[in-house]
Backbone:
């Protein structure tokens, strides 16, 4: 009997999935040392995620090595979980922006964030399923992805860090149920392992009042 | 260097998608699959120039080609389908899915080369998802501009709602052996 046969079927829930990646964290650790800089940066990020997430329905925090996989849950409405997740991500970026003003350049945190919504298998301290893969595919989109996209924005307009991307599903929810953000299509992309073309959106704070991507330093 | 202004152009937009590229990687490994796809790209690029395409853009196992003259489109599609002939380097491929749409797009020079932008590009892309293997899906807008021969060969009219676009009318054309024979005939005449 295979080991998996004995395990109970995992709980399946609809959650907002957030993938956060620390920009150039490996380079920073190699350059300035894991014990001197890298470890503390990751701990600071985890701590900020905890502070921001506890009021937004954060259910799972899983390290991905140089970032985190987060999921958000709302018992009343799955769609609200997506809105809470986007709120949490922007609050996280805001706090990081403030923190970066106070620390030395090598300790600055810069993030790439992606938000998706879908059914996931709940496993202890982790989540599984194709929607998790989708969130990671979204996070992996960069300037270099745009020449292969359809109707792309000019690659030069795509920020290098401190931005939030979302899937069509999340963009639909935000456009129906939230007014505090603007959505800008970055193009239709083919995401590895997923059929068809997917429109991907950048979420911007309303009127770009605090465009954290524009103000941050490129390391 | 001065970048030319974007131009509004009415163009035929062809999408081609390799059928079963993920299965190909699983079957022969990523190195061989990458070599096959590279070869496909080389051939498609060459054929697009041969058939007077305005631009061609590759995205993984897909390409988008734009044509100013609709008479160039079907010979181009048939020539791509002809790449699948037995004993060719591309015989490992399971087939292609094509879509064809005609629309008004913005043709522009970008930092990565020429590109076409607009809602009609989205229509053509989503139509390619409707096509079956070795089939061409033609929007009504494109069909009306095709040579009469192909209008007769198109199947029954179908309508499908496409994401963020609405209902789009289209027809299907089977790219049968007949097309491959036609391609071989053309090739035999064009050989020195």
Residues:
């Amino acid at each position: 009997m295979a080991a998996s046969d004995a395990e109970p079927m995992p709980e399946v829930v609809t959650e907002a999935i957030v993938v956060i990646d620390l920009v150039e964290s490996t380079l920073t650790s190699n350059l300035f040392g894991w014990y001197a800089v890298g470890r503390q940066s990751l701990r600071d990020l985890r701590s900020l995620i905890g502070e921001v997430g506890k009021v937004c329905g954060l259910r799972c925090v899983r390290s991905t090595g140089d970032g985190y996989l987060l999921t958000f849950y709302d018992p009343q409405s799955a769609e609200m979980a997506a809105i809470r997740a986007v709120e949490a991500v922007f609050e996280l970026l805001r706090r990081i922006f403030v923190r970066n003003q106070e620390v030395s350049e090598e300790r600055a945190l810069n993030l790439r964030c992606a938000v998706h919504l879908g059914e996931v298998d709940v496993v202890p301290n982790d989540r599984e399923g194709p929607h998790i893969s989708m969130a990671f595919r979204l996070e992996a989109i960069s300037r270099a992805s745009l020449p292969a996209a359809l109707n792309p924005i000019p690659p030069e307009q795509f920020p290098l860090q401190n931005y939030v991307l979302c899937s069509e599903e999340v963009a639909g929810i935000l456009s129906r149920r939230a007014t505090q953000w603007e959505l800008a299509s970055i193009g239709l992309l083919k995401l590895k392992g997923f059929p068809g073309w997917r429109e991907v959106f950048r979420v911007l704070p309303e009127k770009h009042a605090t465009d954290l991507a524009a103000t941050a330093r490129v390391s | 260097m001065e970048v030319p202004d974007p131009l509004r152009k009415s163009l035929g937009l062809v999408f081609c998608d390799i059928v079963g590229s993920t299965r190909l990687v699983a079957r022969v490994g990523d190195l061989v699959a990458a070599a096959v796809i590279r070869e496909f790209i080389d051939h498609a690029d060459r054929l697009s120039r041969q058939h007077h395409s305005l631009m061609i853009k590759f995205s993984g196992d897909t390409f988008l080609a734009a044509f100013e003259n609709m008479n160039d489109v079907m010979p181009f599609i048939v020539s791509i389908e002809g790449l699948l002939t037995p004993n060719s380097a591309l015989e490992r491929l399971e087939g292609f899915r094509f879509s064809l749409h005609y629309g008004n797009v913005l043709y522009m020079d970008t930092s990565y080369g020429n590109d076409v932008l607009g809602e009609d590009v989205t229509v053509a892309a989503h139509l390619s998802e409707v096509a079956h293997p070795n089939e061409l899906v033609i929007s009504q807008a494109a069909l009306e501009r095709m040579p009469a021969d192909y209008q007769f060969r198109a199947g029954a009219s179908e309508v499908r709602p496409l994401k963020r676009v609405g209902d789009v009318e289209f027809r299907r054309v089977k790219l049968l052996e007949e097309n491959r024979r036609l391609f071989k005939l053309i090739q035999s005449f064009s050989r020195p």
The longest strand of chain A covers residues 111-123. Chain A has one domain: 12-208.
